[in-house]
Amino acid sequence: MQVFHFHREHIPQVNTQHLNLVYNQEVFLPYIEQTFSLEHFEKQIDLKEKSYSNANRQILSNALLNQYKNVSENDEILKNIELLKKENTFTVTTGHQLSLFTGPMYFVVKILHVIKLTEALKVKYPEQNFLPVYWMASEDHDFEEIQSMNLFNRKFTWESAQVGPVGRFKLDGLEKVKEDIREMFKNHPGAEINDLLDAYDGENLTEATRNLVHFLFKKFGLIIIDGDDAQLKRLFIPIAKKELEMSFSYNEVSKTNHKLEKDGAKIQVHAREINLFYLLDGLRNRIIKKDNLFEIEGVGTFSLSELLTELEQYPERFSPNVILRPLYQELILPNLAYIGGVGEISYWLQLKGVFDAVKCTYPLIGVRNSVVWVDSSTSSKMKKINLKLADIFKSKDQLKKTYVKQNDNGTLDFSLLEERINEAKSELNKLVLGVDPKMEGFAIAESKKLDKQLETLKSKLIKVSKSKHDTALKQIDQIIDKLFPASSLQERVSNFFTFSPDGQFSSRIDKMYSKLDPVQNDLLILREIDFK
Question: Confidence band (pLDDT; 50, 70, 90) for 531?
Answer without folding.
Answer: very low
